[in-house]
């Protein structure tokens, strides 16, 4: 069919800022709903309180002893958005190549605009390797991402997390003591976990999602396993199945289930491991028959999406293209047109040549930014309630200005370091992941997407 010229109707400029939308909703200037009106406050209001803060993870139980952020100086808390932006730009200009700022797709717009690199966890893990001469890497993301950057960067480079309270509830759902205990219980079922059978397979290969602590990555490295992201999960599972009879996949059950199901693994061969129950709540025969043992963890952002939301989007927007993240529950992935990583979603929208309506099931900061960047399309979040990631939202321009101006003054604030005994095996697991790059894939083949 020959190309057709389309005259687009002018649309008002879209504001990519979720913070502006939340402020307008809470003030009554905009009709809409947010999951917690406390999101309109500065994150420093919650730094002294236990918990993940307002947003999607506010109902999750935070482990005792989780990092807390000290009090942010008053000058940063009281500064306007414009003042903070000017101070960040000035500090970056002074520091030059001495600092690189990494920003995750889920960060608020007021932070992303200052990032030298914006991407998903897989892309930013690689970006951290590309600046060996930078004195500091400021990681605008969450704690496990900063740990990963520290693992991959040179020892003399400082990796900085602007707000120490920016953790991850999913990552916290698999702690090292629980995983070690699970491994011991599995050894009671399978025998020597390092012994290969007649065909050269070990009983279990551990696979951890990038959204896990350095301690978990270290465990995986010590036991012959590998790290994955949502963009290379299928490639990583293929790697694991070449070496083991089964995979122990943690902490996100949904990514593991959706990826393995797309590879043809039957659901009955994917038992759930609940760390609060003996043998994960399964019997010996179920574990013997298992191909993928799924840890009982999840992402609170992606658990908010539902089949009802998809059906409503289809009813209200005939022809809508529904794309969701593979951290969503299986029934949501099955009901969507496509599922893929954050970068897959971005590339799918960029590749659409005709005006299209997209309903997206992932974190609202990315969705709103994509809507602003592609006004020729109609792009909206499946969840009508504005509810950003609690911990990503803890990074605020005030903290970014504070750590950057600290570097200007020679003061390294909020440095993240991984102990060497953990770092060596964790680095091995990460290096296996970085080598397991998925092949180029067509747009519809989400499980191979990068």
TrEMBL record:
Binding residue positions for iminosuccinate: 104, 121, 209-211, 230, 325-327, 342
Cofactor comment: Binds 1 [4Fe-4S] cluster per subunit.
Catalytically driven reaction(s): iminosuccinate + dihydroxyacetone phosphate = quinolinate + phosphate + 2 H2O + H(+)
Pfam families given in the database record: NadA
Requisite cofactors: [4Fe-4S] cluster
Function according to Swiss-Prot or TrEMBL: Catalyzes the condensation of iminoaspartate with dihydroxyacetone phosphate to form quinolinate.
Gene this protein is translated from: nadA
Chain positions recorded as [4Fe-4S] cluster binding sites: 168, 299, 389
Coiled coil location: none
EC class: transferase
EC assignment: 2.5.1.72
Pathway as given in its UniProt record: Cofactor biosynthesis; NAD(+) biosynthesis; quinolinate from iminoaspartate: step 1/1
Organism: Microbacterium jejuense
Cellular compartments annotated: Cytoplasm
Keyword Kinase listed: no
Protein name stated in the entry: Quinolinate synthase
Keyword Metal-binding in annotation: yes
């Amino acid at each position: 069919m020959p190309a057709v010229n389309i005259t687009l109707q002018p649309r008002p400029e879209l504001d990519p800022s979720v913070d502006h939308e939340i402020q307008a909703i809470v003030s009554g200037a905009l009709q809409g709903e947010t999951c917690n009106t406390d999101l309109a406050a500065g994150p420093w209001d919650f730094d002294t309180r236990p918990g993940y803060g307002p947003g999607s993870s506010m109902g999750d139980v935070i482990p005792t002893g989780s990092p807390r952020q000290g009090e942010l100086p008053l000058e940063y808390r009281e500064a306007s958005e414009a003042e903070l932006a000017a101070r960040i730009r000035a500090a970056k200009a002074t520091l030059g190549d001495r600092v690189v700022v990494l920003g995750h797709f889920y960060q608020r717009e007021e932070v992303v605009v200052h990032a030298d690199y914006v991407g998903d966890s897989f892309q930013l893990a690689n970006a951290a390797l590309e600046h060996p001469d930078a004195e500091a890497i400021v990681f605008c993301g969450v704690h496990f991402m900063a740990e990963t950057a520290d693992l991959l960067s040179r020892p003399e480079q400082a990796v900085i997390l602007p707000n120490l309270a920016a953790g991850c509830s999913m990552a916290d759902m698999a702690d090292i003591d629980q995983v070690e205990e699970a491994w011991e219980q599995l050894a009671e079922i399978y025998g020597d976990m390092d012994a290969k059978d007649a065909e050269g397979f070990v009983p279990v290969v551990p696979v951890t999602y990038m959204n896990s602590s350095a301690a978990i990555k270290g465990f995986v490295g010590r036991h012959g396993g590998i790290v994955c992201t949502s963009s290379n999960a299928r490639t990583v599972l293929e790697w694991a199945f070449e070496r083991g009879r089964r995979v122990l996949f943690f902490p996100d059950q949904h990514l593991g289930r959706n990826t393995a199901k797309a590879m043809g693994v039957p659901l009955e061969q994917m038992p759930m491991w609940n760390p609060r129950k003996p043998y994960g709540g399964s019997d010996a025969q179920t574990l013997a028959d298992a191909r993928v043992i799924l840890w009982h963890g999840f992402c609170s952002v992606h658990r908010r999406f539902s089949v009802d939301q998809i059906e409503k989007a289809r009813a209200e927007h005939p022809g809508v293209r529904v794309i969701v993240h593979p951290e969503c529950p299986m029934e949501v992935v099955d009901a969507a047109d496509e599922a893929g990583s954050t970068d897959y979603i971005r590339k799918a929208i960029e590749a659409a040549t005709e005006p299209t309506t997209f309903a997206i099931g992932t974190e609202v900061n990315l969705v709103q930014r994509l809507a602003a960047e592609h006004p020729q399309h109609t792009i909206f979040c499946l969840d009508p309630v504005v509810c950003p990631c609690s911990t990503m939202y803890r990074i605020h321009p005030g903290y970014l200005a504070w750590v950057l101006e600290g570097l200007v003054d020679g003061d390294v604030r909020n440095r993240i370091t991984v102990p060497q005994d953990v770092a060596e095996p964790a680095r091995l697991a990460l290096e296996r992941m970085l080598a397991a790059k998925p092949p180029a894939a067509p747009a519809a083949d989400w499980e191979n997407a990068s």
